[in-house]
Amino acid sequence: MLFRSLADERGRLAELTVGDLAVRASFEISYQALPAGQPGGQGILGVTDPAWLFRLLGLADAVVLSAGAVAALAGHPPARPEDDPPAGLAAALEVLTDAHLVESPAPGRFRLHDLLRSYAAELARHNDTMQERTTALSRMLRWYGEQAARAARALDSRLPASNLFPATGSAAMADPAQAIDWYETELDALRAAVGQAAGLGLHDIVAQLAVGMG
Questions:
Q1: Which residue of 2, 20, 77, 164 sits 20 to 30 Å from the alpha carbon of 108, by its own alpha carbon?
Q2: Which DSSP string corresponds to the chain?
Q3: Model confidence pLDDT, tens digit, residues 6-31
Q4: Model's pTM, two decimal places?
Q5: Beta partners for 110?
Q6: Do the Cβ atoms of 212 and 151 come closer than 8 Å?
Q7: How do residues 157-187 score in pLDDT, each as one tens digit?
Q8: Mean pLDDT over all residues of the chain?
Q9: Spatial separation of the C-alpha atoms in residues 116 and 92, rounded to whole Å
């Protein structure tokens, strides 16, 4: 019975314990200790609300997200993957990593432990509307689609302009080597993005990602 509960994302946090302290309680302590922000994600002095950002990160299926993907999720899509996130967003990410709610396995890369991702997604379901959650995810998935199109054009400049590969938009990647490196780094995240876009009915993004990855 216990193992069946652990397989359920919503049941795992209620069942697991560490000593006498429930895992959920330890997560709540860290979450409640985050600096207070304002509805919609805007915090003090232009800093993105860390609690809001943590909830958004729980929505993504990808295990590791680049700083660019996080920025797109939060509504600050960078023109290029290599662009630094806005200072306010970077400050919020630093708060989350210092609180051990988010890990940074490499510079510009961020991930949540599986249980923390489940907890963050649960908080998002209770604190943010369906429209807000869908809008945030759509921003990130469309950004992935745009970057995949840019990478595909860098690898094959003969690709005709179309709905999948628009002639205008984000600046082109510098060269094929950069495009290959981006694809290799983001492969797992791109696979997750395809499945999540399909689940949201974003069929244009599914096609853009699939063709670009091909």
A1: 164
A2: -HHHHHHSHHHHHHH-EETTEEHHHHHHHHHHTSPP--TTSB-GGG-B-HHHHHHHHTT---SEEEHHHHHHHTT---SSTTSPPPHHHHHHHHHHHHTTSSEEEETTEEE--HHHHHHHHHHHHHHS-HHHHHHHHHHHHHHHHHHHHHHHHHH-TTPPPSSSS-SSSSPPPS-HHHHHHHHHHHHHHHHHHHHHHHHTT-HHHHHHHHHHH-
A3: 345 555 665 655 544 567 788 899 99
A4: 0.83
A5: 65
A6: yes
A7: 777 656 666 654 455 676 889 889 999 999 9
A8: 82
A9: 17
Nearest to 174 by CA among 39, 95, 81, 46: 81
Which long-range contacts does 166-171 make (Cβ < 8 Å, 24+ apart)?
A: 170/79, 170/80, 170/146, 171/79, 171/80
Tokens of 120: 């963050």
Tokens 């990602």, residue? 209
Longest pairwise C-alpha distance within the chain:
62
Tokens of 17: 């314990």
Confidence of residue 152 (pLDDT cuts 50, 70, 90): confident
Q: For residue 175, how many other CB atoms are within 10 A of its CB?
A: 11
